[in-house]
Amino acid sequence: MTAYIIRRLAQGVVILVIVTILIFSVMHFLPGDPLMLYVAQHQLDNLPPQELEALRHEFGLDKSIPAQYLAWMSGVFQGDLGTSIFYREKVSRLIGERLPVTLHLGVLTLLLSSIIGITAGVISAVRRGRWLDTTVTVLANLGITTPAFWLGIVLIYVFSLKLGWFPVFGYVSPFQDFLLSMKQVIMPVFCLCLIPIASLARQTRSSMLEVVRQDYIRTAWAKGLKERVIVTRHALKNGLIPVVTLLGMQVRNIFGGAVLIETVFNIPGIGRLLVQAVFGQDYQVVQAGVLISAVVVMISNLIVDLSYGWLDPRIRYG
User: Fold this and answer.
1) CA-CA distance, 252 to 259, in Å (whole number)?
2) How far apart are CA 243 and CA 176, in angstroms?
3) Has residue 249 been placed in a domain?
């Protein structure tokens, strides 16, 4: 197990290096000059050339692209993610302020989608062909095809503008005002949950239908065991491996979907920060955001792989 974890971590480091090279190259080969956008934003039309060169030197843009990449990677290994061109602040500080917001939404989404999606899939499989199965299947098909950003706009119009039940936008930490925070995150989390719940329900139903046809499940029924015992102790655990795999993939989708949802609901998280940074060509912020997202995905994939051994003791790690 230890050797497997070390090998996976080493592979993850290689993948992260490749990710940094790709995002660094993409951002630096985009047309336009971020300093020109910065100057225009601050209405410094008459900025002397020597001051512009000083700014270019301050942000390291006067170096060659390979030199800029090496300087950035050197800072990353030292815990320095660089300085934002537009905010004129350390990127680590900007990320530190917004990461808890995205994690709050992401963790709530992951927990709710896992519980609701897996439960709905199990019920649908156990009650196959009945009205519960039909209802879950129809709702799952609708959920998986509904655009999250469109749903967010509809929810704002109906529940905020028309009914006035929830705030239109914004975010407050639950440690500051728990009730207001819950009202603000209900609609964003619902939008983020929709596709994961639908996907998990469909996958759980498919996996459970395969498991309940196995001989040992028939034997459990023949022994007169209760349905709850058969489902929870025998069928569910063996049917969870494909579901856990999909759940690991949903972590990436949840954090990716946060980019749109945070923009729609004006939530000051990592996703909204990245959108603003991309349009402003704020290299350091985009690179740091993508790097953190890659680390989250790598860790989630490792946890998923390690969970296989717990779900199925026959799996061994060489």
Assistant:
1) 12
2) 36
3) yes
Please give the residue range of the domain that contains residue 48.
2-77
pLDDT of residue 311: 67
Are 111 and 197 part of one and the same domain? yes
Tell me if 88 is assigned to some domain.
Answer: no
The dihedral region occupied by 267, where left means phi > 0, alpha psi between -120 and 50, and beta the remainder, is: beta
Length of the chain: 318
Candidates 25, 55, 8; CA nearest to 301 is: 8
Calculate the dihedral angle through the C-alpha atoms of 114, 186, 271, 193, rounding to the nearest 10 degrees: 30
What is the mean pLDDT, run by run of 10 residues, along the chain of 318 residues? 76 83 76 59 58 67 75 78 77 85 87 88 82 85 84 88 83 84 88 87 83 75 75 73 79 75 84 79 80 82 76 64
Neighbour-count burial for 219-256, b at 16+ CB within 10 Å, e otherwise: ebeeeeeeeeebbeebbbebbbbebbbbbbbbbebbbe
* pLDDT at residue 48 in the model: 64
- Say how many domains are in the chain: 2
